[in-house]
Design goal:
With 249 residues, the chain is mainly beta. It contains three helices and 17 strands. The strands form three sheets. The chain has a seven-stranded mixed β-sheet with strand order 1-16-15-13-10-9-8. A five-stranded mixed β-barrel has the order 2-3-4-6-5. Strands 11-12-14-17 form a four-stranded mixed β-sheet.
């Protein structure tokens, strides 16, 4: 287990309502009613129960419309991370620290790189020092010169089985097609499912919500795309990496 993130100063409260996707009304423990930014634009299946304890962070800035960000909710004796802007930061930090051996070897990490046939941007491109641009070298031995890494936040579960997605995601389908399209002898592709709760030790595609995504994920696995269902436990103010969940295809 590794500590991979420390939240900024957190404030406790209870969820009053969530609306227009981006807004959550929260009553802080001091009685103040605030509106926090909700970074999760999806349905938040199973993790949006009114009246539940929540945690928010405070970021006063003239550049922000809302000073508070909704970070986590407490359900079934478990803190669940709901800020979907956080997983990329955590995974970026883990890549810098080489905490995901399944993606080795690499020496360079670059974020938000344009790629693919459908005008996409990959979350992270991993390359080697000897070949920073990822250009295949002439060699008798096949080596991986670059790895494209996509990150997906995961909070929906059935028991201890984490599932993604919890709704139809044409964007997610596109990302799987893009990952498969870049695979060749010198290029790997990987998708990291950031399981933002510590009570799930298994992972599967949410085919009940999006059958096409389930079909594409199975095809990606068959083609060699690495699938890393990474488990994280929220222990405010810390996030702890627990390792990989078992993958159920």
């Amino acid at each position: 287990m590794s500590q991979v993130h420390i939240y900024p100063d957190l404030m406790a409260g209870r969820l009053v309502s969530r609306y227009k996707r981006f807004f959550a009304d929260i009553e802080l423990d001091n009685g103040e009613l605030i509106t926090a930014h909700c970074a999760n634009t999806g349905p938040m299946t199973g993790v949006c129960e009114i009246g539940s304890p929540v945690l928010v962070s405070y970021h006063p800035s003239p550049k922000r419309k809302l000073a508070y960000s909704w970070e986590a909710i407490y359900l079934n004796e478990e803190w669940i991370g709901v800020n979907t802007s956080l997983p990329n930061r955590v995974i970026g930090n883990m890549l810098d620290r080489h905490l995901l051996p399944e993606l080795e070897p690499y020496t360079n990490v670059k974020g938000e790189v344009a790629y693919g046939n459908e005008k996409s941007r990959i979350d992270f491109l991993l390359t080697n020092d000897e070949n920073p641009e990822g250009i295949p070298k002439i060699t008798s031995k096949i080596t991986t010169n670059r790895t494209y890494v996509e990150v997906k936040n995961t909070t929906w579960c059935l028991g201890n089985l984490a599932l993604f997605p919890d709704t139809v995601t044409t964007r997610g389908q596109k990302h799987l097609r893009e990952l498969m399209s870049v695979m060749d002898d010198h290029t790997d592709a990987a998708i990291v499912f950031f399981i933002n709760r510590g009570d799930c030790d298994r992972f599967a595609a949410g085919s009940q919500a999006d059958p096409e995504y389930g079909r594409l994920l199975a095809a990606a696995i068959a083609k060699g795309v690495k699938v890393l269902p990474c488990r994280f436990k929220i222990e405010p103010p810390k996030i702890i990496y627990l390792g990989l969940a078992s993958l159920e295809v």
